[in-house]
Design brief:
By secondary structure, this protein is α+β, with helices and mostly antiparallel strands. The chain has three domains: 53 residues, Defensin A-like (2-Layer Sandwich); 77 residues, K homology (KH) domain (GMP Synthetase, Chain A, domain 3, 2-Layer Sandwich); 77 residues, Ribosomal Protein S8, Chain: A, domain 1 (2-Layer Sandwich), CATH 3.30.1370.50. Strands 1-3-2 form a three-stranded antiparallel beta sheet, covered by helices on one side. Strands 4-5-6 form a three-stranded mixed beta sheet. β4 and β5 form a beta hairpin. α2 packs across α4 and α5 packs across α6. The longest helix has 23 residues. The N and C termini lie far apart (53 Å).
């Protein structure tokens, strides 16, 4: 939690100064008066007002603010609509030049989504899952991942060995795991560190043989 201590001749001035330093409105701040001002006697023993101001964290507002400020900096007129379901938040982007934000193979919109998740959750006590979408890209991409996952699962079973996918972002890995989790012939594992973390599709027969071999090693 971001908190500062501010002193001024009055409580009101101290609060105003604190809000300016934190760059937030009064509705996003929690104020605690630590010491009331005193004029003392003939100026002797005078003391200022001291307040502690904490920002009331709002990950959704922070994420949306980041998006809007980024588009202003880029000179783009982009409309941002949000949908909230529990801790899943989707920002749907629309505008004349919104295709620029998708980028080749979705790399631009994926990068924006990573930034939104990092910045939106920077001070969150409980993490939110932010999705950034435009022109139905996420659903088209999901369908493509579904097709890819099924084909590579069949390949793994046919070859009798694990198949490695290209590195992908966490949301894409979740889709792959979800698609294949109910299959009886393969299992999936994520290996490596971000941003090179990737999925391996492993035939269950191959995994069983590997376990037997390992058990035989003295």
């Amino acid at each position: 939690m971001r908190m500062i201590s501010v002193s001024a001749t009055t409580v009101e001035l101290a609060v105003a100064e604190g809000l300016q330093q934190l760059n937030v409105g009064r509705d996003r701040a929690e104020v605690v008066v630590k010491s009331a001002p005193s004029k003392g006697f003939l100026g002797i023993g005078a003391r200022p007002a001291v307040v502690e101001i904490s920002i009331i964290e709002d990950p959704i507002a922070d994420a949306e603010f980041f998006l809007r400020e980024m588009f202003v900096a880029m000179g783009l007129v982009i409309k941002v609509n949000k949908q909230i379901k529990n801790r899943d938040v989707t920002f749907e982007l629309s505008g004349d030049r919104v295709a620029l934000l998708i980028g080749k193979h979705g790399k631009t919109i994926d990068a924006i989504q990573v930034l939104v998740n990092n910045l939106g959750n920077k001070h969150a006590k409980r993490l939110f899952r932010f999705t950034v979408d435009a022109q139905g890209y996420r659903e088209r991409h999901r369908q493509k991942l579904m097709s890819q996952a099924k084909k590579l699962a069949e390949k793994a079973v046919l070859l009798g060995r694990e198949v490695k996918l290209e590195p992908m972002i966490a949301s894409d890995r979740k889709i792959i795991h979800s698609i294949l989790q109910n299959r009886v012939d393969v299992t999936t594992e994520s290996r490596g560190e971000e941003p090179n973390r990737t999925i391996f599709i492993i035939p269950k027969a191959f995994k069983s043989r590997s376990c037997v071999v390992k058990k035989r090693v003295p």
